[in-house]
Amino acid sequence: MLDALLQGLSLVLQWNAFSLMLVGMALGFVVGLLPGIGGAATLALMLPFVFKMTPVEAFAFLLGMHSVAATTGDITSILFGVPGEGLSAATVVDGHPMAKRGEAARALGAALMSSLVGAVIGAIALAVSIPIVRPLVLTFGSPELFMITVMGIACITSLSGMGTRAQIKGIAMGLLGLLLATIGQERQSGILRFDFGFIYLWEGLDLIPVLVGIFAIPEIIDLAVRRTAIAGNAPAALGAGAWEGIKDTFRHFWLVVRCSLVGVFVGILPGAGGGVAQWMAYAHAAQSAKNADERGRFGSGDVRGVLGPGAANNSKEGGDLIPTIAFGVPGSGAMAILLGAFLIMGLHPGPDMLTKHLAVTYSMVWTLVIANAITVLICLAALPYLALVTRVRGELILPFLILLVFVGSYTANRQIADLLVTLGFGAIGYLMVRFGWPRAPLVLGFVLGKLAETYLFISMARYGYGWLTQPLVLVLIALTVLVIVLPYLQERRHRAA
Amino acid sequence: MRLSGAALFSLGLALVAGYAVYAAMRWPAKAALFPLTMGIPLFALAAVQTFAELREPAIGAGPLGRVVVVFAWMAAFIALVLLAGFPIAVPLFVFFYLVMESREKLGVSLVLAAAAWGAFHLLFERLLHFPFEAGLIREWFQ
User: Fold this and answer.
1) Partner residue facing A169 (CB), from B49, B78, B86
2) Are residue B124 and residue B73 in the same domain, yes or no?
3) Are B70 and B137 contained in the same domain?
4) Which residues on adjacent β-strands are paired with residue A192?
5) Residue A64, exposed/middle/buried by CB under 10 A (0-12, 13-18, 19+)?
6) Residue B84 lies in a domain
7) Beta pairing partners, A193
8) Domain residue limits, chain A
9) Pairwise CB contact (< 8 Å): A399 & B93
10) With an 8 Å Cβ cutoff, is A149 touching chain B?
11) What is residue B127's DSSP assignment?
């Protein structure tokens, strides 16, 4: 195994593979800044270019591009409040308020370093778990997957803030997110729900326009109303906080590790996707707050709200690759496209990848680590200059932010209607901010809603109500109850103390 | 008791939930289960919130004029995309926004509009070969 690991490293460091990885990284860096055309879309666009490459070159190119896009997505999320990737939206919640306070460099430093730690943990998980992951994945059927999504939905209570009114608003927004996820054709019966006669709605609402509208447009409005730079008149030296952000990663190292493991775990689960990983990690970070005061800081610029999603965003790449390589079962849309690359290369995911082509498999592990390490180092070097963007007059960058939002929304599906959806959800997002309704629970509900419904119906069709008595389901039910009551128990203990 | 903006938002949420429940009641059980499970408690919570908001003092109107102007610019960009397509709409929007809304000098606006077009063209058209729709005007003339 060690031989294969070293051989994988030497394969990635060969001139051809390494230079192609750099080209992929450059491309991933740029597209990562744009919402919509994220990792999966770019993978699809670049697939035709890999025909003449060797397998190691092809995966260095594609994975280098994909993993970097996940990292750089955090940059626009923090600087402008525009999610660079659909997956980076959770970073907006605390990262952008930090930028507004003049702590852009600290937030970026924290996001980048936690991304690197997350990528390394994801790669280690991939390297270690490939031989042993089969029983784990096979243990998780639809009932267990349904309970995991329910556990994710239960995190809404952690994202809602304390107090009855805050909880009402948070839970209501979570329910609205779940309700929005039901728009479109119901998969079991074929009934069209809430389509209002529009063919566009048959497939349901896409995540990117909803996310970008809800998070980015209120920030654009805020910037336009303030008529200042993003950082306003904050006095802090922008570049000086980067080191502080790096140190934050190690100050909260176990949180970063836990959130990375959340990312790996969600990545392994088929169909869950990176958005789920980020929001679950964010919810876990919020839940780790010791009391209501600490939890109240989440959403208004707590660095832990940047560290958790940053780590999970990159660690889930390693997790995603595990079922893709081991069984040919892609964990996400991007991995489904990568599976196409396997077939183009003449490789068949499964036992061969763990025996005959083990060196190629480990070259992927190394690509994840090396590509992320290089990106983080480059970004850290450029960080003071990146953070300077928050000092540019708002009036000057506003048209570019509007372009970023709408071009990004369009490139996700090439639908003009997505632009209208973005604008509509922008208005809703603005009103939510104005009247104090939390946005995070809505997104969590929306991301998990479709999955929850699908898994529930498969479970019911296959096991009736019997699935509720399966041992692992019972454990997950207990954990879900714990997720719901933990904030209240913590608060009670804090008051008693 | 007064109908403030916050109360109207909560009321809107209650109406959305109410409609969802009403619509779902006409569907078969499989399709209706999830919307009903979400819609009924959402309606109840939004109604509670509406009554609570009615008893509270209204939040100030805020800079409504400026908000409407920015939304109008975004709507104008969408209309421009629909008519002329992205490659033309991008530089035009940047130029007119900078000149008319930001009151930038003509030269600066031209340079920034050209930069926006250059970056867009290089990334989407040259590098990614991303297919953008041409826009209605070109279609009318074809």
Assistant:
1) B49
2) yes
3) yes
4) A185
5) buried
6) yes
7) A184
8) 2-496
9) yes
10) no
11) I
The answer on pLDDT for B141 being more than 70 is yes
Q: How far is CA A359 from CA A12, A55, A338, A356, A439, in A?
A: 10, 11, 18, 8, 44
Mean pLDDT value across residues B72-81: 96
Q: Which domain holds residue B99?
A: 64-141
Cα–Cα distance, A186 to B37 (Å, whole number): 15
The whole-number pLDDT of residue A307 equals: 92
Residues in B 47-106 with any Cβ partner in A closer than 8 A: 48-49, 52, 59, 62-63, 66-67, 69-71, 73-75, 77-78, 81-82, 86, 90, 93-94, 97-98, 101-104
pLDDT value at residue A285: 87
Residue A31 is predicted with a pLDDT of 73
d(CA A285, nearest CA chain B) in Å: 26
What DSSP character marks residue B2?
-
CB A176 to CB B13 under 8 A? yes
pLDDT tens readout for residues B18-73: 999 999 999 998 889 889 989 999 999 999 999 988 887 766 666 788 899 999 99
Residue A341 confidence (pLDDT):
80
Partner B contacted by A166 (CB < 8 A): no
What one-letter code names the amino acid at B65? G
Task: Report angle CA B38, A188, B37 to the nearest 5 degrees.
Answer: 10
Q: Dihedral of the CA atoms A350, A352, A354, A358 (nearest 10)?
A: -130
Cα–Cα distance for residue pair A259/A309, rounded to 1 Å: 7
Neighbouring C-beta atoms of residue A410, cutoff 10 Å: 26
Q: Which two tokens stand for residue A89?
A: 């939206």
Please indicate, yes or no, whether residues B73 and B118 belong to a single structural domain of this protein.
Answer: yes
Residue B59 lies in a domain: no
Name the residue in chain A with its Cα closest to that of B19: A194
Hey, what amino acid is at A33? L
Same domain assignment for residues B119 and B72: yes
| Residue A81 Rama label (left phi>0; alpha psi -120 to 50; beta) | left
pLDDT at residue B93, as a whole number: 96
In a domain, residue B49? The reply is: yes
The answer to whether residues B40 and B69 belong to one domain is no
Which whole-number Å values give the CA distances from A244 to A100, A105, A289, B56, B133, in the listed order? 17, 9, 20, 42, 46
On chain A, the residues whose CB falls within 8 A of the CB of B82 are 416
CB within 8 Å of A250: residues ≥ 6 apart: none
How many CB atoms neighbour CB A13 within 10 A? 14
Q: Quote the CA–CA distance of A91 and A99 in Å, as a whole number.
A: 12
CB A14 within 8 A of CB A60: no
Of B19, B42, B132, which to mutate for an interface test with A (greatest number of A Cβ within 10 Å)? B42
List phi, psi (to 5°) of A403: -60, -45
Q: Which two tokens stand for residue B19?
A: 């409609």
The CA-to-CA distance between both ends of chain B, in Å, stands at 59
Low-confidence ranges of chain A (pLDDT < 50): none
Quick check: ipTM above 0.85?
Answer: yes
Higher-confidence residue of B107 and A488: namely B107
Q: What is the per-residue DSSP string for A168-237?
A: HHHHHHHHHHHHHTT-EE-TTT--EES-TT-GGGGG---HHHHHHHHHHHHHHHHHHHHTS-TTTT--S-
